[in-house]
Amino acid sequence: MSLTCDFDSSSDCVTLHIGDRFDFSAHRSFHDACLARPRARSYVIDLDGVTAMDSSALGMLLLLREHAGGDDADIRVVNADTDLRNTFRVAGLDRMLTMG
Hints:
Blueprint: E1 3-8, E2 13-18, E3 21-22, H1 27-35, E4 42-46, E5 52-53, H2 55-67, E6 75-78, H3 82-91, E7 98-99
Parallel strand pairs: 2-4, 3-5, 4-6, 6-7
Antiparallel strand pairs: 1-2
Helix pairs in contact: 1-2
């Protein structure tokens, strides 16, 4: 599992590029990249290349949403394939996060 984080200071945006699996193995990296730093204005979760995601990944996204301001959070999920989009829909996260 690989996770890289980019921060654009001009737009105060954190972009996470997640490797092939988004699961519990990403927890420490995800926490350090998002939750252990001051809140950014916006977040982009890039799922390009992600082939599997488990419930702990969904939980991490919920923690990020809370950290980023709850209902006022600006979190965009991009490059999710059809299976991942269905997972978000079934979990109800498609109504809490912006799917792009």
